[in-house]
Amino acid sequence: MSSPQLNARAAELLKLLIERYVHDGQPVGSRTLARAFSVELSPATIRNVMADLEEFGFVSSPHTSAGRVPTARGYRYFVDSLLAPEPITEVERARIVDELVPGSRSPADLLHAASNLLSRLSAMAGVVTVPRRNVAVLRRIEFLPLSGGRVLAILVVNQREVQNRVLDMGRDYTAAELERYSNMINETYAGRDLVSLRRTLVDELADAQKSVNQALSDAAVLAERALSDRQEAEDYVLAGGTNLLAFQELGDVGRLRGLFEALDRKRDLLDLFDQCLTASGVQLFIGGESGYQVLDECSVVTAPYLVEGQVAGVLAVIGPTRMAYPRIIPLVAETARALSAGLKAEG
Fewer CB within 10 Å, N side or C side of the chain? Predict the structure, then answer.
């Protein structure tokens, strides 16, 4: 759904409303906007503009409050059309560089330092994924039946690396079934990297289920499970998760429980970060844009970092949608640059 282009007055009022709400965390009323606006506007004019912004889905009126708050769509318009990034201060830049200079630090120590830096400087959660040393490419996959509803998945990755996974599928398969499924996957997907292949399988599994293609659906389930179990060995470093308790919009017990479970479980967030490995520069997911319900009230700002000139991992800040995007986006970008430099020097 494309957003309308706002005129200068509406854009400035939206920008003022978002900046005030990010600062105070309280619904913003027309009187507050009138005092901050560059020229004098009547209360009626501001109310009319606010009504238009609400109709566009950029703001909403919580409960019976006279003020309004930005929506995820409003934040997205702000970031895409109105954002003026704040340069990193010299003090912050010096702190980032000092803590990410390799010296006697191991690469693992640098990842922890970067995660802690992001957390402390943003007052939110900082995440750094463990480097992927090389791209894993599927050469062949075989499925063999085991007892008790289990299946042995044998993956040949890159040139000669062989990985075995025991999958608890909850039902028995015949050897003929599994050979058929192996052939389907190998004929279609051999030579694909595992990260993009897993995302493709998830999409095609949904398509196969819609078309009632049982064979393709079963093959996709087995392959996706094999790749999913492989991914559990990957990891990320998290710092400052408890910082999220300070934000009242994340204060619902059920919502926080789901968020902390996702942070602990890691698989969902690793999937999200994998999407950023092939993107250049900073990526921003606001609310439901991440595709994960537990992040509906959160924003995730990510940037890739390099090892030996190749994208190796992703670092991120996770916080409420009410975050200071003009400051957080440059912070993430600068930390990614410094971590890349530190890992390069270390290597």
Answer: N
Q: What are all long-range contacts of 241-248, with beta carbons under 8 Å and residues at least 24 apart?
A: 241/125, 243/119, 243/123, 243/124, 243/125, 243/319, 244/124, 244/125, 244/318, 244/319, 244/320, 246/123, 247/25, 247/319, 247/320, 247/322, 248/25
**Domain at 138-231: CATH code:** 3.30.390
Distances (CA, A) of 192 to 59, 77, 136, 224: 43, 36, 9, 13
CA distances from 297 to 22, 291, 317, 330 (A): 14, 12, 14, 22
Class assignment of domain 90-132+235-346? alpha beta
The ranges assigned to domains in the chain are 8-82, 90-132+235-346, 138-231
Do 8-82 and 138-231 agree at the fold level?
A: no
Each residue's pLDDT tens digit, 205-260 = 766 555 556 777 788 888 888 877 554 445 789 999 889 888 887 767 777 888 88
Helix axes 107-122, 325-346, angle to 10 degrees: 170
Residues 263 and 243: beta-carbon distance below 8 Å: no
What is the end-to-end Cα distance of the chain in Å, rounded?
Answer: 45
Return the number of other C-beta atoms located less than 10 Å from residue 89's C-beta. Answer: 11
User: With 60 as the cut, is the pLDDT of residue 48 above it?
Assistant: yes
Q: What is the CATH number of domain 8-82?
A: 1.10.10.10
pLDDT (tens digit, 9 = 90+) per residue, 323-340? 999 999 999 999 999 999
Residue of 285, 302, 304 whose CA lies nearest to 294:
285
Contact assessment for residue 304 and residue 313, using Cβ atoms and an 8 Å cutoff: yes
Write down the residue that tokens 């609400």 correspond to.
Answer: 54
- Report yes or no: 345 and 102 within 8 Å, Cβ to Cβ: yes
Q: How far is it, in rounded angstroms, from Cα 136 to Cα 277?
A: 13
CA–CA dist 259, 317 (Å, integer): 14
Residue 233 CA to chain centroid, in angstroms?
19
